[in-house]
Amino acid sequence: MSNIVVLKFGSSVLRSAADLPAAVDEIYRHVRAGQRVVAVVSAFAGVTDTLIERAHSVGGRSDPYAYASLVGSGEIESAAMLTLSLSMHGVPARLLPPEQFTLRAHGDPLDAEPHDFDSALLHDALSTLAAVVVPGFVAHDEQNRTVLLGRGGSDYTALFLAKRLAADCLLLKDVDGLYERDPAAPGPAPRRYSQVTWDDALRVAGRLVQPKTIRFAHLHRQSFRVTRIGADHATVVGPGPSLLHPSPWIVPLRVVLLGLGTVGRGVYERLLAQPERFELLRVVVRDPARHVATGVPPSLLSTNPWDAVNEDADVVIEALGGEFPAAEVLLTALIAGRRVITANKAAVAPHIDSFWPYANSPDPQLRFSAAAGGAVPVLEALRRRRDVVAIRGVLNGTCNFVLDRLAGGGNYQEAVAEAQSLGFAEPDPTADVSGLDAGFKLQLCAQAAFGATPADIAIRGIDTLETAGPGAPSQVLRLVAEIDRCDGELRARVAPQWLPPTRFLAGARGEENRVEIEFADGTNQQISGKGAGRWPTTASVMGDLWEMARAAEAAAQPDAAARFAALG
Structurally, how many domains does the chain consist of? Predict the structure, then answer.
């Protein structure tokens, strides 16, 4: 298998635009794991039926290709909206309508079967992007006319693409796999298949997976997985044998949220949207009345950050900002056995020696992915390999913005003020423009890559610059943070550097962060994404939270099996 995964989102999970953040979380989950994602989407719930009614009101199927163009337009809408949501959350993505990667199908124009596409174009797009989004219900015939792939067409498209790309395939549904009978029906809880043969899947899948999709997989000896968003488990449909297990036992994680500012509010909204997975116990703020006015229930609010310890929570999410009291509260919560997530580099980086034991394990009690680059999964990339020799990054979007304005002849103070007005810079931009923010992020990267931080980081920011010159013609000035290991010692620095415009780091714009990782075998990895802002940081925090939720779910399953046995 390649490092590409095909995820199919049907209308049972993408019911409306309100479900887009959950799809983003699932895509980002795989991006964090180092995979490139092809997201195949259906129309939002009810949209295709509405379009069919409209088509029948003006001639029905009298022209099947016009009918297909109208009815298939629902997938274009949902795919475009998912692409926009990915971008808003800092995940580099591109919409690929079927005509762009030449998805070809033949047969009945309203129930066609795909037979070809431009796999080179897809591979090329995924060489620079984290994800591409593909409408799953429509294709084109050899005369370039729009055709439909029939009932279950999006599942079929997902498997077809995965087969040609040698990729894993997940069909994401509103249940976590195939069951011996309908789990929504009255009666004792049915058992779930951990794996099932193609023939048995044809018997038990019902409408969950269309028969033609299962038959395609069987014909090509292709395995695929059926699960729900965020799950730690799935049903593997393949050669078998078929195995049944007790239904997974899901208990919501109890969460205390510290802070309800830019990032905290984003996390708050995401927690409320997943009540079956997360129970919000307490939200700590400075001014409860201000948040009550925006609809937050008064019973949730507190002004005491030590509720991180006082409340009987599973997870503490910290979005207060600043070094103290955050560092003290978080360390105490960890000592008390709480799991902790933070986006606060100012609290963690200066005390990394105290925090690192809680973060350095296969199932860490402390996670701080958002502190090192927002939606850029740099810490995950560094932890996957033990042969890192150097890291170079543009890690501060405020500086990107200001330097671009200076290069255009702008004034430094005016550029900083504009960055603040656009939300790229904090009200006090000192940590950004002095290079301290990039230095904190570099410390966290060093600890993840080398298991240690440098004794000293030479830091020079952009706060002493009046202009962006002089530099070589057409070169780009960026604040570069870099660290390497030389003769067993770590050397680290943060400083403005002139870069050729063709360099990967030179392309960072606005709040975008970019990181290059060099490995001992001479290869390198390039990662990019939005490094700041409500939604990119929220995506990273939720990525950490979902990792903890899946770990808790996996740990609970032996107890679930025992309960199931006790029920007879």
Answer: 3
Any idea what the Cα angle at residue 126 is, between residues 125 and 130, rounded to 5°? 120
Note the pLDDT of residue 409: 86
Cα separation of 504 and 502, whole Å? 6
Residues known to be catalytic:
441
DSSP category for residue 388? E
pLDDT at site 106: 94
Distance CA 206, CA 251 (A): 28
| Inside any domain, residue 511 | yes
Same domain, 165 and 264: no
Residue 299 CA from chain centroid, whole number: 31
Per-residue pLDDT tens for 101-123? 999 999 999 999 999 999 999 99
CA distances from 195 to 26, 91, 198, 205, 227 (A): 22, 32, 10, 13, 12
Asked if 260 and 313 sit in the same domain, the reply is: yes
- Report the distance separating Cα 14 and Cα 41, nearest Å: 8
Identify the CATH number of the domain in which residue 19 sits.
3.40.1160.10
CB 159 within 8 A of CB 167: no
Domain boundary among 156, 174, 192: 174
Rg (the chain; Cα; Å): 25
Cis peptide before 501 (omega within 30 of 0): no
Which residue segment(s) compose the domain that 86 sits in? 4-174
pLDDT at residue 561 is higher than 50: no
pLDDT tops 60 at residue 470: no
Neighbours of 380 (CB within 10 A): 19
> pTM of the full predicted structure?
0.93
Residue with tokens 């498209």: 157
- 267 and 362 share one domain: yes
Count the neighbouring beta carbons within 10 Å of the beta carbon of residue 243. Answer: 13
Provide, rounded to the nearest whole percent, the portion of the chain with pLDDT above 70.
96
CB 495 within 8 A of CB 458: yes
